[in-house]
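REVIEWER CHECKLIST
Item 1: Sequence provided? yes
Item 2: Single chain? yes
Item 3: Sequence as submitted:
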Amino acid sequence: MKVLHLDGINQPLSIQEIATPTPNPGEVLVQIQAAALNHRDVWIQKGQYAGLHFPCILGSDGAGVITQLGTGVEEARLGQAVLINPGRNWGANPKAQGKTFTILGLPEQGTFAEYVSVPVDYVCPLPTHLSFEQAAVLPLGGMTAYRALFTRAGLQRGERVLITGIGGGVALLGLQMAVAAGAEVWVTSSSANKLERARKLGARGGANYKDDNWTDDLLRQAGGAFDLVVDSAAGPDFDKLLDVTAPGGRIVFYGATQGNISQLTARKIFWKQLSVLGSTMGTEQDFADMIKFISQKQIVPVVDQVFPFAEGEAAMQLMANGEQFGKLVLQVKE
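Item 4: Structure as written out by the authors:
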């Protein structure tokens, strides 16, 4: 089978031929139809991720068709269109992942391949209203957004929500989910075009976080502070989020694409009775609940661009530049 190989730090993805895996007992072989990129893939390529080893096959998001069954898997699963849960072995505590938790695409073979063998418990039927390319957007980003909004932050209908850095896959899925749940959502971006496109997806408004008065602008637009702030950046400007969060409100963050929080005004947190919550990925139940929510609300994820499989490196470079609005997808099977 063909795979996209990563041979080392800052090396380009290259197509190579390797043996097609055979599913072990309790596993299924999935012929990948479409695979989506995540920032995780770029961080691994740049050597900015823990547990690196090379060569490796990246890719945490994949949708495809079951073509072979390991022993113990019911025959009815053969030929089923499925979505792959990239999380592995969350553990017994739903509040936090255990030490054996891993993510598909390192250390295990990922979805940038024609086939991948996975435990049958980690695949679910493809939502019927989505194409393979649309569904491939969901696994890592959808689960991250769902857990942040609902499991960790307990989003309620009618709440005012701020989602920062709109345009990335998780943030956009968070926007779509929050709107579908009946929240009033505002967003931030450094791009006027992304702010406008977010409005078309249901955002009430937004602000350019590079403007000096962006916090005042948002508070004026929303008519008050936010019950919930969802952030993926962290970094030096995280402290400003405390100013736009309502007393008793919550801030939930993941990713930390701008690095560690360099300043945090403690008195704002305790005086306003704020909850600051960390979140990442999700449990097997989070994944199942996310897929159910997407299907019930008929949410269609935003795909920025679909690349042929052979152009995986071009997709990685576009991902690294961060200019996309929505997810970048590889069409593995034409």
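Item 5: Key structural point noted by reviewer: Residues 139-152 form the longest helix (14 residues).
Item 6: Recommendation: ____
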